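Aggregate trends can hide what the representation actually does to any particular protein. This step matters because it turns folding into a mapping between discrete strings. For completeness, the protein is quoted in full, as a sequence line and a line of structure tokens:
=====
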Amino acid sequence: MLNEINQAKKVLLGNRKKGYTLPTNNKLYPAQWNWDSGFIALGYSHFNLKFALEEINTLLRGQWNDGMVPHILFHDLNTNYYPNHSVWNCGNKIRSSGITQPPILAIMLRKILEKIIIKNKDKFKIKSIIKKITKYHQWLLKYRDPKNSGLVSILHPWESGYDNSPLWDKPLNAIKIEKNLKYKRGDNKIINPDFRPLDIDYDRYVTIKNHLRKNKYDPKKLYQNSMFNVVDVGFNSIFLKANKDLLSLLKKFNLEYKDIQNYIVKSETQIEKLYDKRKKSFVNYDIKNKKKITAPSITNYFILFADLKNKLINKEIIKTLRKHNSKDKFFFSSIKPNNIKYEEKRYWRGPVWINCNWIIYQGLKDKDKKFANLVRRKTIDLVKKSGFYEYFDTNNGNPYGAKNFSWTASLFLDLILEKKYN
């Protein structure tokens, strides 16, 4: 096991730049990604606390004045990646994208701080990070839930983190693709196109992105005007968990917490309304087209991570999760394998992703210890078998996408080493 631990550390250090870490060491993702950095920071915390906090600090250096933390920061402007900094044409101190990603920073910071004794000299620095994360959460409250409903929206599939999931098929089908659309993809030249989103997906992503840019990424306008507006269970589950962890940090550091506390109560109630009692699963809601989205995505089970107080729902959700892809050798597939939209090798339409398994494992730990340990063991075994890749085949464990993938290495480390702290 020591050999694999050292290999995981080597992947992270090999992908590290000055103060931040690339998702992989090839040209596929040549920038800093928001939720990748959160997962990466957790991995570093097991062997280099300085790098862990630096990863978060560098990401927060790109925070916009209004509080938004972008989904990509372009530290290196010499890149052939699409869409690059010039295509987005925005950013504060660092050139960036104009959208966000699942807000996992508070979750990771709390986990990191649980492992260490905070010295007085470090308190000011950590307090500063917490204040920036709070500003980010307040941005989500203000601009992604302007009606104070208790649920926030995503305005682009990329904001979910699971870009081409079948969850987005119907909302995307309703989008009229911009005429004379011109752009040059690079991802499907680096990685087998069979493993990547389709060109039609990209046409729609770029159409939405261009519309956001025309609106100058103005959060006051975009909730109403965006071509895509979906309440995603996965994103909201992560946000509810992040708010709970942020509340704990705010109290610990004697910072104002009433807004966050009130929103947690509202979210807890509202997210339960997305539960389909008949199907015993959660559904997304397409605000733009006023329709429910019922695709059986593994991300619907992120609700376990949110730690709802409703024990009956938790119990039923776990029962449904057990059947998600129980006939396959490896779990969890990103979409239920018996679904018509399932594709074994294509990105978020079938393969196993280590971050999803990690999130679900965290959600199961206090609810079904036996099942949680099975998820942990099978996830560790999959990475040991196939290496630190981006995603994996649910039938045979074959690796797909980028190799030397940072969050796979990082979360593998956390799964292996967490017992030291529990």
